[in-house]
Design goal:
Elements: H1 2-8, E1 15-20, E2 23-27, H2 28-38, E3 43-46, E4 52-59, H3 63-72, E5 77-82, E6 95-101, E7 119-125, E8 129-136, E9 141-148, H4 149-159, E10 163-167, H5 171-178, E11 184-187, H6 194-205, H7 219-234, E12 247-248, E13 256-257, H8 259-264, H9 278-282, H10 288-299, H11 305-320, H12 322-332, H13 338-346, H14 352-374, H15 378-386, H16 391-400, H17 421-431, H18 433-448, E14 454-458, E15 462-468, E16 480-484, E17 488-492, H19 494-526, H20 529-555, E18 561-563, E19 568-573, H21 578-581, E20 591-595, E21 602-606, H22 613-628, E22 637-641, E23 645-649, H23 662-676, E24 681-686, H24 694-710, E25 717-721, H25 730-733, E26 737-747, E27 750-759, H26 767-773, H27 778-794, H28 805-809, H29 824-834, H30 843-856
Parallel strand pairs: 1-5, 7-10, 9-12, 10-11, 13-23, 18-22, 21-25, 21-26, 23-24, 24-25
Antiparallel strand pairs: 1-2, 2-4, 3-4, 5-6, 7-8, 8-9, 14-15, 15-17, 16-17, 19-20, 19-22, 26-27
Helix pairs in contact: 6-7, 10-20, 11-12, 11-20, 12-14, 13-20, 14-15, 14-16, 17-19, 26-27
Length: 859
């Protein structure tokens, strides 16, 4: 326990898995946590001096089962192993932490999601700007950027890191800026200094400057990157040769997608349970690395036209040559996750089976390279030129590793025959022992003339020759007697002892030689890490582009014309997700959208609930986004002038945990848009202002549209869906503001949704029709209809007539009291009745009073 507490004190915030014999044990508070998370038994053990300590453990071979569960539960886990063989020491076995596993630095296949990156992030905050770095230890991808706090937040939303490091002293600032939804871990402030970070980076990359990586001027980004490498030191991850480069995320190259837009467009996760995200629909990749790259493309759409057109040209080429696409797919399938496979080489964790998998992947790269080189497409040719099948490495693995080796090196049978003469000899001894002993027995029998002698083995003195007493006189002088029995005697010979030492040490020595030879092959593979990583990147890109062509063919997508103009012209556009979720046989109603900076900058869309306003807004943004990642789009045709930012303010949602109302959330999101818009931005507003009173909402919506129209920074293209029909008036005043509505038909007092966008405003919201469709009680719907008619007729906004007569009687569930109604007319009637002296009232006076009340009621 003293040894345990000594190690635990170094890792106070981690669960310590303490190896004791064949078990990993946890103690005290760790044991309580572990038993709850893993559902294993919690016991108590006496610990001297009448004290008790809680205990929970599991067999060491179950580590791969239990460790992922602890990490997924958000725990940091320190794995403490025995560092020496218990047989070789008489003292307490030396133990130490061999790995600290946290959500951000997990490399076990059981913990990682194969089709997602497992990013660790570090954030360095200055007064107005910040630096950020991302590392996926399982693939070796290392990225950095710096910019405004909004840019840092945007990257955190897009990359979705599993763990975020920050300076201990800046916890409050971090939470104020980025919220508390991230799994965060504080580091000492000295780690976040420029000198410390730069030294750590230069030491790792073994260079004299960072200019070669293009990050020399990113001081804040460099600090964040250095902090990540320091953290790897702290968590005992020292084998990181697969981190070969540091890549800069250039803000000016990618479209701005803030966290609201990523959520509102449901790019990665659906907002509602049972829904589908954009990724769910467009991901047609075969390999895990292709799937991870696609998510990156969606998080970082391109702004430069040429790289977009390059991607489109490959997708189109696959359309024209489906045979090439199918051939490439057939070679891609067996490749698997080359990116994560090669990272295991650096950490020395690659198993013999994974080594054979690497060989198969390299074998498949050869014909893929040939196919790309022969293609009549410059982008594919360029990919082919860079692919490297590493033939010398293939040959070595094929020559030295068995075709179907065991999963682990310690099982033996990994290295082929003919590689090491010593290994071959030892195998011959270990696996041909019976033949040798049979030969020896026959030889000695013939030499001595003892036909009944036999060679056997026991644990006391190993191999021996047994001779029956009747032949005792024939025993040669060079035999040594070891044991006398009633009917026989047992002897040993020099040759037998030599053979015994050989055969008993052979298996151990075989494993030792195999491990040594295997490690030599691993070291050879390590030299190819950069080349294999380039292969993985190129194959992931190829996988994404093949996926785009499959998607386009299956769903009738077309190639959009992407250019530098300021026009968005979509003909018969469809929502890529909704069209896949419609009931069989129900067509998606497509719509045209045209926006530019000169004539039609802002479209105000009115129309009833459920008519499809929100779908129209989202599909426009998704078509633009798909265009700018190089995909084809769901439309008849599309011309997309590249946008630099996509903003959305969609739907109402409370942020109760932060004490923010629906309206506050709306205003936060709207403020973020107005403070960051540009002349190439695309803005989507859906029902802005509904979180407050009608007049407040109309005023704010009007002023926001006006601000966007008149903004000196440029005419941001805007779709504004609203219930406020008053906003239709803006088209009369602001020339680039146009009215459209999503049309409906009324048949027999019922509404039919046509879902078609047509010019002109709508002056009717059909909210009552929707209430009827939702199953609202009939009396409520009828009463709402009456009030609506009265409002439309008289424009009275406050003192509405209250339900009287039959309507009051037939309210569902309860009877309203006539005199509890808060209405001026009824109050007057009540006062008249209350002041009557009934005991002294004549019949004539009663009739006159009744006539007065009738006049007050207007009857």
């Amino acid at each position: 326990m003293k040894q345990y507490f000594g190690i635990k004190n170094k890792y106070p915030d981690a669960i310590l898995l303490f190896r004791v014999g064949d078990f990993y044990e946890t103690f005290s508070e760790d044991a309580i946590k572990v038993s709850e998370i893993l559902g294993i038994t919690l016991t108590r053990r006496a610990n001297g001096s009448a004290q008790h300590v809680e205990l929970a453990g599991f067999p060491h071979h179950a580590l791969d089962t239990y460790l992922p569960k602890l990490v997924r539960a958000g725990q940091r886990v320190a794995v403490c192993d025995q560092l020496e063989d218990p047989k070789t020491t008489k003292n307490i076995v030396k133990r130490g932490v061999t790995e600290l596993v946290t959500p951000g630095v997990a490399i076990s296949d059981n913990i990682l999601e194969h089709r997602e990156n497992n990013f660790l992030a570090a954030v360095h905050l200055d007064t107005k700007y910040g630096g950020i770095s991302f590392l996926d230890l399982s693939t070796g991808e290392f990225l950095t950027a710096e910019g405004t706090f909004e840019h840092i937040e945007k990257l955190l939303s897009g990359f979705k890191p599993k763990e975020v490091l920050f300076e201990k002293a800046k916890r409050q600032q971090f939470i104020e800026l980025f919220g508390s939804k991230h799994y965060i871990y504080p580091l000492e402030d000295w780690i976040f200094t420029e000198d410390s970070a730069r030294d750590r980076l230069l030491k790792h990359f073994e260079t004299k400057s960072l200019k070669g990586f293009g990050v020399n001027n990113l001081k804040l980004g460099t600090v964040a990157s250095g902090a990540i490498l320091h953290y790897l030191d702290l968590t005992q991850h020292s084998q990181i040769a697969h981190i070969t480069t540091l890549t800069r995320i250039e803000e000016e190259k990618y479209v701005w997608l803030d966290k609201f837009t990523i959520r509102n467009l449901e790019l990665f996760y659906p907002v509602n349970e049972g829904g589908k995200s954009l990724v769910d629909v467009v991901d047609r990749t075969i390999t895990p690395m292709g799937s991870r790259l696609l998510k990156r493309w969606i998080a970082l759409p391109l702004k430069d036209v040429q790289p977009i057109r390059d991607r489109q040209s490959v997708v189109e080429y696959f359309f024209r040559d489906p045979e090439l696409k199918e051939q490439l797919q057939s070679y891609l399938r067996p490749i698997g996750d080359l990116e994560r496979l090669v990272s295991k080489v650096a950490s020395g964790r690659m198993t013999p089976r994974e080594m054979v998998q690497l060989k198969l992947a390299l074998i498949n790269i050869g014909p893929m390279r040939q196919l790309c080189m022969e293609a009549d497409n410059s982008v594919l040719k360029h990919i082919g030129e860079q692919l490297n099948a590493c033939p010398s490495l293939q040959d070595r693995i094929h020559r030295e590793i068995e075709t179907d080796p065991p999963a682990q090196i310690n099982k033996g049978g990994v290295i082929r025959d003919g590689i090491s003469s010593e290994l071959d000899d030892l195998r011959n001894i270990a696996f041909s022992g019976k033949d040798y002993l049979a030969n020896l027995q026959q030889r000695e029998s013939e030499r001595t003339g003892i036909s009944s002698l036999k060679i056997s083995f026991n644990n006391v003195f190993g191999y021996y020759i047994e001779v029956r007493n009747t032949h005792k006189d024939k025993v040669p002088a060079d035999w040594i007697r070891k044991q006398t029995l009633v009917n026989a005697e047992r002897y040993i010979t020099e040759e037998l002892k030599e053979y015994e030492s050989k055969i008993l040490g052979a298996e151990e020595r075989i494993l030792s030689i195999e491990t040594e030879l295997y490690n030599q092959i691993l070291a050879a593979v390590a030299e190819f890490i950069p080349a294999i990583q380039v292969n993985a990147t190129l194959l992931a890109k190829l996988d994404c582009l093949i996926g785009f062509s499959l998607l386009a063919k299956e769903n009738k997508y077309v190639r959009p014309l992407v250019d530098e103009s300021d026009i968005i012209d979509i003909k018969a556009g469809r929502h890529p997700v909704i069209e896949k979720q419609l009931p069989p046989g129900e067509p998606y109603i497509p719509n045209d959208v045209y926006l530019d900076n000169e004539k039609q900058q802002i479209i105000i869309i009115t129309g009833p609930n459920m008519a499809g306003k929100s779908a129209l807004l989202r599909q426009t943004a998704l078509i633009v986004l798909l265009s700018q990642i190089g995909s084809f789009v769901p439309a008849e045709s599309a011309k997309i002038g590249v946008v630099d930012k996509i903003f959305t303010r969609v739907g109402a949602s409370d942020n109760i945990s932060q004490g923010e109302s629906t309206f506050m959330v709306e205003m936060n999101e709207a403020a973020s848009i107005l403070n960051n818009l540009s002349d190439r931005s695309l803005i989507l507003f859906d029902e802005l202002g509904r979180g407050t009173s009608t007049y407040d909402g109309i005023s704010i919506a009007w002023s926001i549209v006006e601000y966007i129209h008149e903004n000196k920074r440029g005419a941001a293209k805007t779709l504004f869906a609203t219930h406020y029909h008053e906003l239709n008036e803006m088209a009369n005043t602001y020339k680039r503001c146009k009215n459209f509505n999503v049309s409906v038909k009324e048949v027999d007092n019922k509404v039919i949704f046509i879902r078609k966008l047509v010019p002109g405003g709508s002056n009717h919201s059909f909210g009552i029709h929707v209430a009827r469709m939702a199953g609202m009680p009939k009396s409520v719907v009828k009463r709402a209809d009456d009030i609506l008619k009265e409002l439309e007729d008289t424009h009275r906004k406050g003192q509405l007539a209250k339900p009287v007569g039959d309507l009051a009687k037939h309210r569902e569930g309860f009877q309203l009291s006539f005199f509890q109604l808060d209405d001026p007319v009824l109050k007057q009637i009540r006062d008249q009745i209350a002041n009557l002296d009934i005991n002294n009232l004549t019949p004539m006076e009663a009739l006159n009073k009744l006539n007065d009340i009738k006049k007050i009621a207007g009857l």
